[in-house]
């Protein structure tokens, strides 16, 4: 007769159970930490770049919930469920059209922004977008003297004959092109070193509109985060006593960055977010890198301006996609 002890088997079960519990907590803690940091707007250091991928973290956060429930780890399930719910609350509204789109009556315009990647983008594609969508205002970033000439050859000046251009070699140039005359045109260099072209236009039947091609420094290194935040904080605010304002360009920030949310809270609305297109990726992986697309190109409109629709289009030889927005600006009384 063989006598066996139940103790080793029980010990194995306890170790196995503890291992499963530890694994579940290791799975859920990143999502839980992510949701807490996003809640407080406490992203800093390397988290600034990481938080551009918050929509993907929201998808991942649902996995630990399922694992914890399947394993009957109820505390872990509750914690992971709260974390996942918070991330969904932050992200999901961008995929849903707002009921409040701002004013619906006024003068309708279409605006377009495109980062032309140090002058390497295909001018023909952008000119075709301008022509096909009846674009009235085009903002571009990373405009060089060479691509300025190529746009002229492609016929942009006949479609949008008025411009405020600050072309430079490299990635710092900027431009605004308009169907309507531009007054008070010029450019300013932000703290990160990029030029931002601007001007005031007045479409027929509407009052003056201030437009600016925005390009804050990218948060590519911890040493430049102060400049990145300063560039976003330094963007002009809507002036209730001045013309309505439109900021459009490569903001190098997503709606999961507190600095951009602070800017929007000053009196803007993000056109893509309003239209339920706020998760449409505008940067990466269009140059072949294994990088999930993130939304860093935006059209921000003064709250006196309404949003009709938003579309995103690829541009050959640029790592950014262009953002096209139909807007409604106040008509003259």
Describe the structure.
- It is elongated, with a radius of gyration of 24 Å.
- With 333 residues, the protein is α+β, with helices and mostly antiparallel strands.
- The model has no long low-confidence stretch (mean pLDDT 94).
- The chain has a 6-stranded mixed sheet. It has a 6-stranded mixed sheet with strand order 5-6-7-8-10-9.
- The chain contains 10 helices and 12 strands.
Task: Give a brief rundown of this model.
The chain contains ten helices and twelve strands.
What keyword list fits this structure?
333 residues, alpha+beta, Deoxyribonuclease I, Chain A, 2 domains, six-stranded mixed beta sheet, 36% helix, 23% strand
Write the layout of secondary structure elements.
Blueprint: H1 6-40, H2 47-50, H3 54-70, H4 74-91, E1 107-115, H5 123-132, E2 137-141, H6 145-154, H7 156-159, E3 162-166, E4 174-178, E5 183-189, E6 195-201, E7 209-214, H8 225-233, E8 245-250, H9 258-265, E9 268-270, H10 271-274, E10 297-302, E11 306-314, E12 321-329
Helix pairs in contact: 1-3, 1-4, 3-4
Number of strands: 12
Low-confidence stretches: none
What's the CATH topology label of the largest domain? Deoxyribonuclease I, Chain A
Elements, N to C (H/E):
HHHHEHEHHEEEEEHEHEHEEE
Whole-Å distance between the termini? Answer: 103 Å
Q: Using the coordinates above, name the CATH class of the largest domain.
A: Alpha Beta
The CATH architecture of the largest domain is 4-Layer Sandwich
Oligomer: single chain
Task: Label the structural class.
Answer: alpha+beta
Helix content: 25-40%
Radius of gyration: 24 Å
Q: What fraction of the residues are assigned to beta strands by DSSP?
A: 15-25%
Spatial ordering of strands, largest sheet: 3-4-2-1-12-11
Residue-averaged pLDDT, rounded?
94
Major β-sheet annotation:
6 strands, mixed
